[in-house]
């Protein structure tokens, strides 16, 4: 259909006893399922926020993580950059001192389960740690990040005819959290390095007008989540259709600046869907007409 899919944007109590949204004109999250031309089943998470802003959070004290960075032999390492994987505009990071110690301020919007990534200047040594910020035993004492040679990720993206696709946006996630992204070159190839201990969740590729594809790691929650990973991830972008989503008030007025993104996507014939709820790569914002265009 050429008619945009309409989303009713409301404020106030949501009818099931939750408190009113801090932004009266909008709700925080809406979810829905689209079935479009049998190409994929897409569950959309509509991340509703005012123009140029983020979703409001409750006021709370900043979270501080202190720890030490070591090599595989247990020796402290200085000049290592530690960053938190977060879903906010600010990207908290810190650098270890000569004795390997660091202090990382995560801010007020830190998630309960947070991933820390560590790397030297060249990415030749990398570390990974997932901590539960609600567990005092993990945050009330220094954490330890062990640096190791990283895992190399090689991705090749092709079109439906099997030809290499240039300028496709590729992203790699540990579980649901993106840890690296970039664009393919003229040969359709993109390469990166990630911590070897990070449980790979997915590799996705997207190019407007060309399509979307993914590798979903079915073992990411097992004891050995990275067993059986391929040496090269081959993704095929086999076409796309335009989907327009309209955000409007009860009175029918369009709402601009509303961020929307797919939550889960499952292509036909795939045993598993991919959860891209943490990816900014797939986000689109409504324009002055209240329409977000997904291509």
What integer is the average pLDDT? 81
> What does the overall shape look like?
globular
CA distance, first residue to last residue: 15 Å
| Helix and strand composition category | mainly beta
Number of strands: 22
Helix/strand order: EEEEEEEEEHEEEEEEEEEEEEE
The stretches of 5 or more residues where confidence is low (pLDDT under 50) are: 9-38, 48-59
Note down, in words, how this protein is organized:
The chain has 295 residues and is mainly beta. The chain is built from one helix and 22 strands. Strands 2, 3, 19, 20 and 21 form a five-stranded antiparallel β-sheet that branches. A four-stranded antiparallel β-sheet has the order 6-5-8-9. A four-stranded antiparallel β-sheet has the order 13-12-15-16, with no helix packed on it. Strand 15 (200-207) and strand 16 (211-216) form a beta hairpin. The longest helix has 4 residues, at 136-139. It is globular. It starts with a strand and ends with a strand.
Element layout with pairings:
Layout: E1 5-8, E2 29-36, E3 40-47, E4 63-70, E5 81-85, E6 93-95, E7 101-107, E8 113-119, E9 126-132, H1 136-139, E10 143-146, E11 151-159, E12 169-174, E13 177-183, E14 189-194, E15 200-207, E16 211-216, E17 233-237, E18 243-248, E19 259-266, E20 274-275, E21 284-285, E22 291-294
Parallel strand pairs: 1-18, 4-10, 11-17
Antiparallel strand pairs: 2-3, 3-19, 4-7, 5-6, 5-8, 8-9, 11-14, 12-13, 12-15, 15-16, 18-22, 19-20, 19-21
Features:
44% strand; four-stranded antiparallel β-sheet; 1 helix; globular; mainly beta
Question: Short description, anyone?
Answer:
By secondary structure, the protein is an all-beta fold. It has one helix at 136-139, and strands at 5-8, 29-36, 40-47, 63-70, 81-85, 93-95, 101-107, 113-119, 126-132, 143-146, 151-159, 169-174, 177-183, 189-194, 200-207, 211-216, 233-237, 243-248, 259-266, 274-275, 284-285, 291-294. The strands form six sheets. Strands 2, 3, 19, 20 and 21 form a five-stranded antiparallel beta sheet that branches.
């Amino acid at each position: 259909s050429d008619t945009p899919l309409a989303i009713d944007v409301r404020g106030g109590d949501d009818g099931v006893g939750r408190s009113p949204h801090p932004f009266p004109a909008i709700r925080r999250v809406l979810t829905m399922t689209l079935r479009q031309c049998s190409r994929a089943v897409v569950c959309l998470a509509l991340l509703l926020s005012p123009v140029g802003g983020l979703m409001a959070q409750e006021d709370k004290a900043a979270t501080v993580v202190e720890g030490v960075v070591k090599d595989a032999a247990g020796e402290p390492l200085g000049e290592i950059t530690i960053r938190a994987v977060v879903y906010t505009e600010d990207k908290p990071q810190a650098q270890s001192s000569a004795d390997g110690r660091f202090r990382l301020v995560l801010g007020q919007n830190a998630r309960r389960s947070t991933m820390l990534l560590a790397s030297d200047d060249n990415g030749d040594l990398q570390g990974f740690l997932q901590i539960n910020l609600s567990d005092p035993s993990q945050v009330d004492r220094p954490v330890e990040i062990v640096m190791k040679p990283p895992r190399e990720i090689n991705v090749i993206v092709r079109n439906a005819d099997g030809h290499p696709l240039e300028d496709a946006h590729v992203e790699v996630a540990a579980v649901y959290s993106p840890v690296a992204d970039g664009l393919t070159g003229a040969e359709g190839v993109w390469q990166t390095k990630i911590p070897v201990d990070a449980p790979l969740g997915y590799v996705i590729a997207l190019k407007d007008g060309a399509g979307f594809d993914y590798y979903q790691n079915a073992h990411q929650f097992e004891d050995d989540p990275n067993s059986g990973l391929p040496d090269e991830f081959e993704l095929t972008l086999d076409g796309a259709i335009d989907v327009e989503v309209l955000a409007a008030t009860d009175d029918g007025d369009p709402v601009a600046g509303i961020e929307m993104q797919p939550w889960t996507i499952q292509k036909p014939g795939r045993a598993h869907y991919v959860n891209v709820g943490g990816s900014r790569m797939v986000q689109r914002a409504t324009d002055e007409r209240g329409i977000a265009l997904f291509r």
